[in-house]
Amino acid sequence: MRKPDKVINLERPPVVESAILVRLALPSDSDDEIEESLEEMRRLAWTAGAEVLCTVVQYRPDVCPATLIGSGKVKELRATCEELEADVVLVDSDLTPTQGSKLQEALGVKVLDRTQLILDIFAQRAQTNEGKHQVELAQLQYALPRLTGRGAEMMRLGAGIGTRGPGEQKLEVDRRVIRKRINRLKADLDEIRKHRRLQRKCRTEGSVGTVALVGYTNAGKSSLLNALTESHTHVEDKLFATLDPCSRRCPLPNGGQVIITDTVGFIRKLPHSLVAAFRATLEEVNEADLILLVADVSHEMVAEHIAAVNAVLDEIKVENKPIIRVFNKIDVADPAFVRTQLHGPGDPIAVSAKTGEGIEKLLKRIEDVVSVQRVRVRLRIPQCEAGIAGRVYQEGRVLDRCYEDNSILLDAEIDAALAGQMEAYVERSEPVAPSLDAACVQHA
Ligand code: GDP
Ligand code: MG
User: Is 206-371 the same fold as 17-121?
Assistant: First the structure.
């Protein structure tokens, strides 16, 4: 489905395993949906370091409760696995614990579903302590009900009469160890988060506006962060290259500045447990003053991608926040298609993080939205308090400066909150009117 220019010419990660991709196609799935979903699985596999040898799609009226796909197909698949010497079967949907273990038994090779594959990638990529904790927690929570052939049922029953049997004792010990570890991880994560909240508070002291970049994975969020801040964040044509939030100061054309945070990419069918595990990362989104919803407009499924992102924003309860829609990669998109997209809601902006086209316009728009609460002030600062003047220079835009007696007089545009903190020095203050095209789009 991806256009030829998307074919990645980066170096492949070392291929460690060969895989067969399996998908159950129900009557309710459209061909486009199936193809897009499989393409995503191929990219996930690629990112995880697996080579997909072939893809098997079974059309069935319903899900087979025991093994997802029908028993005839399972036999066929086993023969294919043997013939191609596959190491792993990747299933493009979520398996129940029972289906997972039954399929694995029937096929004689490792079976991973979408969630496990994503978790594996997350595990490879997490950099910070928090990211690593989150991944381990999600992995253990996923593994716990899968520790026994009887799976989730057993977990609901808990330990005790009727749940023990030969071999169950060891499983029970394993489960206890895992539960203990899960509690430990949760406690640690609470601590890490408290610390992060504090850090964030310090960072936003003086109320520099904050902007969160969200979007489908591979939309170009990290590239855009680089383009906006002229820095060099890790950019890769791989899914989930960014796992840990990364924040940068971004100077605005009017001399002000905002802090922009890159976030983990969203993906369709991002498993619920993962959204929960990464809630903290996504918290950054909820705390931001403005959201940039980045979409790859050269991708024909761009509308679906935006819908998937909106679904996650709903899930993490982002409401009534200004959103600017950014259509990225216009350098490789079909201009006619871009034009149709630009008619959509919320006055979107078309940019190319690669060529820099549209970046100035985007910065201007950001400025308009966040400068809503800016004020023009006249400050009289005693010369002995150079730190105060320094802060005005750093966080605001100084329009005029002169010296009188032992004071510095500054005419400046600063955030209302900063003006509040400097009340003692403010001689005069008036709001800066936002420009008329400041689009404050409510997220639909
Ligand atoms: P993220 O997952 O949303 O952070 O996406 P990245 O910033 O890592 O970019 C994903 C891929 O898209 C990389 O290969 C980038 O080089 C590429 N990319 C990003 N922006 C543009 C753009 O404006 N034009 C083109 N042609 N490629 C881009
Ligand atoms: Mg990224």
Answer: yes
Is the pTM above the cut of 0.70? no
Residues in a beta bridge with 261: 212, 247
Pocket test for ligand 1, best of 47, 218, 224 (most atoms within 8 A of CB): 218
E strands of 44-162, at which residues? Answer: 50-59, 88-91, 110-113
Q: Domain 17-121 classified CATH 3.40.50.11060?
A: yes
Question: What tokens were used for 67?
Answer: 């093994």
pLDDT by residue for the chain (444 residues), tens digit each?
A: 333 333 333 334 566 789 999 999 999 999 988 998 898 889 888 878 888 999 999 999 999 999 999 999 999 999 999 999 999 999 998 888 889 889 999 999 999 988 888 888 777 777 777 778 888 888 888 878 776 544 444 444 444 444 444 456 666 777 888 889 989 988 998 888 788 777 666 655 545 678 989 888 889 998 999 999 876 555 655 555 555 557 788 888 877 778 888 876 666 666 666 666 666 667 778 878 899 999 999 998 888 888 888 887 887 778 778 899 999 999 999 999 888 888 877 789 999 999 999 999 999 999 888 765 678 899 999 988 888 999 898 888 899 999 998 899 999 988 777 888 888 999 988 876 544 333 333 333
Q: Whose CA is nearest to atom 2 of ligand 1?
A: 218
CA 6 to ligand 2 center in whole angstroms: 16
Q: What residue ranges do the domains of the chain occupy?
A: 17-121, 127-195, 206-371, 373-442
| 292 CA to centre of ligand 2 in angstroms | 14
Evaluate: CB of 338 within 6 angstroms of ligand 1: no
How many other C-beta atoms lie within 10 A of the C-beta of residue 15? 12
Residue 342 Cβ contacting ligand 1 at under 6 Å:
no
Measured from the Cα of 236, ligand 1's closest atom is 8
221 within ligand 1 shell (Cβ under 6 A):
yes
Cα dihedral across residues 326, 4, 118, 100: positive or negative: positive
Asked if CATH classification 3.40.50.300 holds for the domain at 206-371, the reply, yes or no, is yes
CATH class, 373-442 region:
alpha beta
Could you tell me the distance, in angstroms and rounded to a whole number, from the CA of residue 220 to the centre of ligand 2? 7
**HSE toward the beta carbon, residue 243, CA cutoff 13 A:** 22
